[in-house]
Amino acid sequence: MISRLFNTRDTHFRFNGGIHLDDHKAESTGQPSAELSLSGQYTLPLRQHIGAPAQALVSVGDNVLKGQLIARPGAAPSAALHAPTSGRIVAIDARPVPHPSGLSDQCIVLEADGEDRATDYSPVGEDWPSRSREELLAALQDSGIVGLGGAVFPTATKLGSAREWEVTTLIINGAECEPWITCDQTLMQENAAEIVRGIGIALHLSGATECLVGIEDNKPAAISAMSKAAKASSYPITVVSVPTLYPTGGERQLIKVLTDKEVPAGKLPSNIGMLVMNVGTVYALERFISTGEPLITRMVTVTGDGVRAPQNFRARIGTPLADLIQAAGGYTASANRLTLGGPMMGYALPDDTLPLVKAGNCLLVTSPAVLPEKPAALPCIRCGACAQACPAGLLPQQLYWYSRARNHEALEKFAINSCIECGCCDYVCPSHIPLVHYFRFSKTDIRSAAEESRKADIARQRHDARQARLDRIAAEKAAKLAAKKAALAKKNAAAGDDKKDAIAQALERAKARKAELNKDDKQAGSSAETGGN
Amino acid sequence: MTAVLIITLLCVAFGVALGFAAVRFRVEGDPVVDQIDAVLPQTQCGQCGYPGCRPYAEAIANDEAEINQCPPGGMDGVRALADLLDREVIPINPENGVEKPKSVAVIDEQTCIGCTLCIQACPVDAILGSAKKMHTVIADECTGCELCLPPCPVDCIDMKPVGENIAQWRWPAPESEDEDAA
Ligand code: SF4
Ligand code: SF4
Ligand code: SF4
């Protein structure tokens, strides 16, 4: 019925594996999103995206306006950073940032002046279809927009490469398959028209000729809002209702469900002519083109049984997480864990003093009842449940053995890099083995081993080069010495008797000089004695 | 007659020399030595008691050295060698030194007198500078071997640990279950 009225269809394609989870979407969608009020201070890490960190353009003490560029992109891929409000830069230093390592990273710290004065935006505006892709992409370089679905890959770079790959299909990821998270859903319900305009821009920039929007069927309101907006537009958009199954929102899984095509291992969607973007990203794209506002806010879900009033917020990047918790009614008595992201792919945060970053889609606060500690792991019983659940077609139990043995070769042979860290294997494992932790460990272990061996190779080359140079210099010296000796010998031989004469003469001269010197000495000695008296 | 004899003798002599060289070259291109050398960290510090990683690799291959003499390689290195050579894992020999966090040399450029002694000591040419000009270390190329410290007459070189950073961070290994893997 719906499909008749709007550009909507179902799909009967499936990916292998996956698991059914309680979606917990209702908790945070009881009311519309709210705009978060201004915070006193904003902390903006220079590295909030994949690639090189941004480079600060401001100094401590500078006054900045909302939307002002405060850090430009580093070597590509990289993304710019903008002031979320007007105020003064009070520090540029290393501070704790949201990251599984808990480490610090360079941040720009902005103290808000409360006036929220914006810089003069110069938007591309309504006539974007008449602008060339090059021009728009150049403008996008400084937009600060990155993939907001979690990958945080700089969008300008992604769209720029789309044409090299001759992308034909744009896929908009509105699946939002992870439990508890509802920021994309809320955005689709509240801003479908802007998202559809953003899709139009993305189609123009990527050169794709059709667009599929994938939304899980547990979000009927989002499906209908998007369908209506798509229908009202002139773009070739089809909204597809996909079955709710974790992790449909994985790039490869969504492509499979929407088109029945597989992205080969080690390849990217662009290799098969597809480009996947998150709904939040195209929304940010539309805002930037239409209003000139760079990426300084994002939709973020604050939810879980650990906050009193779960809700979605339009919050500025850099906002202290504590302010978000406050806006959601504060902690409940049983709150004991703070997670950035969802329960499956998120990671625990040490505290709420950290800032909201571009990748921050959800702040999940839970009690042990909802997210219990994992019981101690037991030995693997080789039940194979993990392999059945794995949406990437891997053999997690094999990877687990090799991870423990740190057998990098075997890990790579068993395609550990295809693991999307979705946590399905972990979830179904009857022995509670923290499989994803093993795989994350091994992936970074392999990466740092490669880095070490690259460095060792450089050191070996430099050492060998130095050794060769020293040997060459020694050889040259020896050769020179030998040549000199030879020359001398030759001269001596040629000189023959002359030499004897020369020696005799030299001896004579030396004797004469000595005699003279003695005479001088005596004179000098006597004069010294005279002087002494 | 004598001429023929001399030529013959020369031929024999060259033959022997060539044969010798062939044997020698085979030893030098020894894949075992290459494999061992590939595992060694290339810090080129000499703590193993050999003038560099490759000589140590040769010594191991010739059974003249144990596999636990390289502190920069650490226990990971010992394990890799044990794996490669099918030997038992043994702790690092404390006589060779202790495993330390990776550091790089930093020259205090205010104090440096430009004597070039450190440049001569650096096994990987990671120090830049010329006579009487201030010297500096290319941090990326420094292996942390510490060989430049003793020759410095004004003691202006310090080893600074390479701190952890987010880009290079790796997940800690999970605590393993009480059973043995692999
Ligand atoms: S699910 Fe767990 S116990 Fe079963 S095979 Fe996989 S790792 Fe082993
Ligand atoms: S975490 Fe990796 S191995 Fe486990 S199910 Fe997901 S993709 Fe497969
Ligand atoms: S101790 Fe130093 S020189 Fe010897 S193998 Fe190890 S890194 Fe190389």
SSE inventory with pairings:
The complex is a heterodimer of chains A (533) and B (182).
Chain A (H helix, E strand, L loop, with lengths): L1 H4 L2 E3 L23 E2 L5 E5 L9 E2 L6 E2 L4 E4 L8 E2 L4 E10 L7 E9 L20 H8 L14 H8 L6 E5 L9 H8 L1 H15 L3 E7 L3 H13 L4 E6 L8 H9 L14 E5 H13 L5 E7 L7 E6 L4 H7 L9 E4 L6 E2 L13 E5 L18 H5 L6 H10 L2 H6 L10 H5 L6 H61 L1 H36 L1
Parallel strand pairs in A: 1-12, 2-15, 10-11, 10-13, 11-12, 14-18
Antiparallel strand pairs in A: 3-9, 4-6, 5-8, 6-7, 8-9, 14-15, 16-17, 16-18
Helix pairs in contact in A: 2-3, 4-6, 5-6, 5-8, 11-14
Chain B lengths: L1 H27 L2 H9 L13 H9 L12 H12 L17 E5 L9 H5 L5 E2 L7 E2 L19 E5 L21
Antiparallel strand pairs in B: 1-4, 2-3
Helix pairs in contact in B: 2-3
Can you summarize this structure?
Helix content of chain A is 39%, strand content 16%. By secondary structure, chain A is an alpha/beta fold.
Q: What's the CATH class of the domain at 2-35 and 125-340 in chain A, please? A: Alpha Beta
Question: How many strand segments of chain B?
Answer: 4
CATH fold annotation of the largest domain in chain B? 3-methyladenine DNA Glycosylase II, Chain A, domain 3
Q: Find the count of extended strands of chain A (DSSP E, 2+ residues).
A: 18
Largest interface: A-B, 43 and 32 residues
Strand content of chain B: 5-15%
Largest sheet of chain A: 6 strands, mixed
The average pLDDT score of chain B comes to 83
Number of helices of chain B: 5
**Given the structure, what is the number of helices of chain A?**
15
The strand order across the widest sheet of chain A is: 2-15-14-18-16-17
Number of structural units classed as domains of chain B: 2
Name the shape of chain A in a single word: elongated
Q: In whole angstroms, how far apart are the ends of chain B?
A: 72 Å
* Percentage of residues assigned to helices of chain B: 25-40%
Estimate what percentage of residues of chain A fall within beta strands. Answer: 15-25%
Fold-level CATH name of the domain at 2-35 and 125-340 in chain A: Rossmann fold
